[in-house]
Known about the structure:
Helices cover 51% and strands 18% of the residues.
Amino acid sequence: MSNLEDLYREIILDHYRSPRNRGELPTPPAHQVEGFNPLCGDEITVYIDVSDGVLQDIKIAGHGCSISQSSASLMSAAVKGKPVSDVHATIDSFKRLMTVHESQLDDQVEPEPVDLRKLGELAALQGVVKFPVRIKCATLAWNTLTQGLSELNA
Length: 154
Ligand code: ZN
């Protein structure tokens, strides 16, 4: 298990040090939405370009802890260029990963199985849920993206 945890730590650090899709998109045509996690001071700005039912491009700006920034980078890599329906499915899977572990901590029950293979590198963030206060760091970018898609009715 420690080897897997080392791999996950490496993925998170890699995305923190070399964030993917970092920057801004011109608005319009892109849509800009901001997220803030007051518990940790994380700030995220997500720029999304949606057309023809596809998330054509995504850029991330902002600053914060390694978990919030690497989660945003991992998210951008996972959803860029994907149909909006796939983006929603990925958001749901990721949030379930976080929620499942949250309930596991609360109730000491066996978690629902989550297909980590479908999540790819996103699975690296599952270790975050051992530290419940960090879950808001990990989900910040995702909640911000969800808000953006909602504002676009996408
Ligand atoms: Zn944070």
